[in-house]
Design goal:
The complex is a heterodimer. Chain A is mostly helical. Chain A has helices at about 15-25, 45-70, 75-105. Chain B is about 45% helix and about 15% strand. Chain B folds into 3 domains: about 5-115 and about 245-255, Rossmann fold (3-Layer(aba) Sandwich), CATH 3.40.50; about 130-240, Glycogen Phosphorylase B (Rossmann fold, 3-Layer(aba) Sandwich), CATH 3.40.50; about 260-294. Chain B is an alpha/beta fold. The chains are: A mainly alpha, B alpha/beta. At the A-B interface, helix 1 and helix 3 of A face strand 1, helix 1, strand 2, helix 2 and helix 7 of B.
């Protein structure tokens, strides 16, 4: 899950990973989600049906869980923050490009 | 969105391109001779003149053009000429505190814009204890001494400087390192140019193994590194901050409204821009403004 606000504007997660690689420290891996699979079905009549139903429902349940996580985990806020950052970056780049072009035209007239 | 025109004598515009990009962010930046002059009736919302000679192109005085004009000056003579022409404000590009420029005692002193500055408001300082905690959280070694590669990507450079216990820093990255409060080792030439003192805001050492050793020593001496980091941040706020001069220029050009009473009071009290108080005041002001409009 992405946090809605970065720790600091100067710190980039990917850059931290590269720095960790360069610094040679053991990497910190976030543990993977627990498996959603339930206990092994008991052998016997009807257990085959139950296990088939469980297997069929597994992906749906995991999808619903992940969607709920996304909805409650501030994903929208994170995306909005990202869009705002991209807009600010776009405004910066546009202003820089226009200023350089204007300076070039004034210098070369 | 306003149209900001840049006017210059040939060969003088490139020097102010960075400043114009900052001032004109969120607006449209154009060349005076390419965009405004050829079209009859075209008028920009504001004009930035790269030199005093370029003012003559605009007219005999500010009244003739009728929009706010700011002009770059390099000495007192320029300042006098620009003021007599009627500019709204003047600005000069400075390298550091030790560089002699137009007098600042004058009421109408030019706005001092650092050539290599940073927006300290956007970059909160990262104290050494916080750095240590962040390193631990990210599985990085402690202490972390770096020679920051100036050719690395901007994200790598800023992250390295933000997390390092101490760093050997090249000239381009010194403003960022000082703003982040990174205990830094710089060369004597860089220190001279920027007006930095050895053992005060930075450690000064020649390039090579000496600078690496000095950075390692600095990382081990935490009290010295902490006080150096505090002074470095203060130096960046006082001499390398771009936000304040750019805001002054934008106000002079009418690109942003004059500060409210609350904003002025918060500035008087030196309230950090990133503080919760400032954010709440801004939110409250937005609400009041909305009410006034409805």
């Amino acid at each position: 899950m992405t946090s809605p606000e970065p720790i600091h504007p100067a710190i980039d997660d990917d850059a931290v990973a590269r720095l960790r690689q360069r610094a040679g420290a053991p990497s910190v891996e976030v543990s993977a989600n627990e498996s959603v699979a339930g206990p092994e079905p008991a052998a016997g009549a009807g257990s085959k049906l139950r296990s088939t139903a469980r297997r069929a429902a597994g992906p749906v349940v995991s999808r619903v869980r992940s969607e709920l996580d996304r909805a409650t985990g501030g994903e929208v806020a994170a995306l909005r923050a990202e869009v705002a950052e991209l807009r600010a970056e776009l405004a910066r780049l546009r202003a820089e490009q226009q200023a350089v072009l204007a300076a070039f035209r004034e210098d070369r007239r | 969105m306003a149209v900001v025109a840049l006017v210059a004598t040939p060969g003088r515009a490139a020097e102010v391109a960075d400043v114009v990009a900052l001032v004109g962010r969120g607006h449209r930046v154009v060349s005076w001779h390419h965009h405004v002059r050829p079209g009859r009736g075209r008028r920009p919302g504001a004009v930035v003149a790269a030199d005093v000679e370029a003012l003559e192109v605009l007219g005999s005085s500010a009244a003739e053009i009728g929009v706010p004009v700011v002009c770059r000056v390099i000495d007192q003579l320029d300042e006098t000429r620009a003021r007599s022409w009627g500019v709204t404000a003047t600005f000069c590009l400075v390298d550091g505190p030790g560089v002699p420029g137009p007098t600042t005692k004058d009421v109408a002193a030019p706005i001092r814009v650092p050539r290599r500055g940073v927006d300290t408001r956007a970059l909160a300082v990262i104290p050494l204890l916080t750095r240590s905690q962040l390193r631990s959280a990210h599985g990085l070694p402690d202490p972390l001494v770096l020679a920051v590669d100036p050719s690395a990507s901007p994200a790598d450079r800023s992250t390295g400087l933000a997390l390092a216990s101490a760093a050997v820093v090249s000239e381009d990255l010194v403003p960022l390192a000082l703003a982040l409060g990174t205990p830094s080792v710089v060369t004597p030439e860089v220190a001279d140019r920027m007006g930095l003192e050895d053992g005060n805001q930075v450690a000064v050492e020649g390039l090579g193994i000496d600078s690496d050793r000095r950075a390692a020593r600095l990382a081990r001496d935490q009290p010295a590194a902490a006080s150096m980091a505090r002074r470095a941040r203060r130096f960046a706020e006082d001499h390398l901050d771009l936000a304040r001069p750019v805001e002054q220029l934008q106000r002079a050009l009418g690109l942003i409204p004059a500060p409210s009473v609350i904003e002025r009071r918060l500035a008087e009290l030196s309230t950090p821009p990133s503080s919760r108080l400032n954010r709440r005041a801004a939110e409250a002001m937005t609400l009041f403004t909305l009410e006034a409009h409805t």
